[in-house]
Amino acid sequence: MKVLAAMSGGVDSAVAAARMVDAGHDVTGVHLALSRNPQSFRTGARGCCSLEDSHDARRAADALGIPFYVWDLSEEFRVDVVEDFIAEYRAGRTPNPCLRCNESIKFSAVLARGLALGFDAVATGHYARLVQGPDGVELHRAVDPDKDQSYVLGVLTAEQLAHSLFPLGDSPKSQVRAEAAARGLTVASKPDSHDICFIPDGDTAAFLDRELGTAEGAIVDADGTEVGRHDGAHHFTVGQRRGLHLGIPAPDGRPRYVLDISPVTNTVTVGPHEALAVDTITAGRPSWAGPKRPGRWRASVQVRAHGEPLGCSVEASDDGVRVLLDAAAHGIAPGQAVVLYDQDRVVGSATIDSTAHRAAA
């Protein structure tokens, strides 16, 4: 099988490519240039896609004896990921750029180009498992729960999964690093990236200030009383506690959290933690990892990359899903993805439009 190995310059993608070579596939490495002006070096575990990462990917490919190319997808990345990220914050929502990158770049643009060039599949270093099921290839959680990345892959369609390979899904991260060291790969001890790749310094607020500007507005309590001021509603996300700088303490002395963000009035509403409780999620833009599942059915959902699975009932249609949680959850923000699971199998995902509490409805 002709396999296109996406090589980020990290240890995971290098070992994934190595395992594809060991399996006897005809492997070609490709590094995605996602920035028009990449920094020369990453700092610690911040960011990725630097020139250093590109060189690391090339050295790994050379060590494996496979062809290696760099594909410039910076324009697609800017439009589909970065501009989407900015637009979502402008609208008062909280996006997940890694999930959007998987959807639009790694498993759309790259896979489409790879198939057009005659490749059969794209292999990545994501921690997830593919299992052959009665209706085709199924996406399952990784064996290592601390590294499981099925959430950010939840946007993939059944057709994309049929042309994807995740060689690391059955391995713990410690084994992957040990394997890289045994192979003599120089990235064996390279730190993982934990930040948004296009904000390598980790300062999301400053990045959004540059893109959206600053605009002073009010921070109000649930009854409309102004309790503080801010320099831009895009600095906040639902559930946030730190960085509010409120001038008037709550009457009961307890901390307050962001409950709502209104970009139209540039107002941020805060209140007590219990006011964050929601048990109903309405989400649009559904994507199914297998056959569509209309109607009502039991599932578990995840609303953050490393969040706890939440038991629920799902009401699904062609336009979206309505999730009825078994128990109230806190800090769920519009713009986040809700990924639907049947035990450890990903059924599909959707983008959260709104939340509510049935008891308060």
From TrEMBL:
Catalytic EC class: transferase
Gene Ontology molecular function: ATP binding; methyltransferase activity; tRNA binding; tRNA-uridine 2-sulfurtransferase activity
Site residues, Interaction with tRNA: 126, 336
InterPro entries, alphabetized: MnmA-like (IPR004506), MnmA-like_C (IPR046885), MnmA-like_central (IPR046884), MnmA-like_central_sf (IPR023382), Rossmann-like_a/b/a_fold (IPR014729)
Residues forming the catalytic site: 101, 197
Function summary: Catalyzes the 2-thiolation of uridine at the wobble position (U34) of tRNA, leading to the formation of s(2)U34.
Protein name (Swiss-Prot/TrEMBL): tRNA-specific 2-thiouridylase MnmA
Highest classification ranks of the organism: Bacteria, Bacillati, Actinomycetota, Actinomycetes, Propionibacteriales
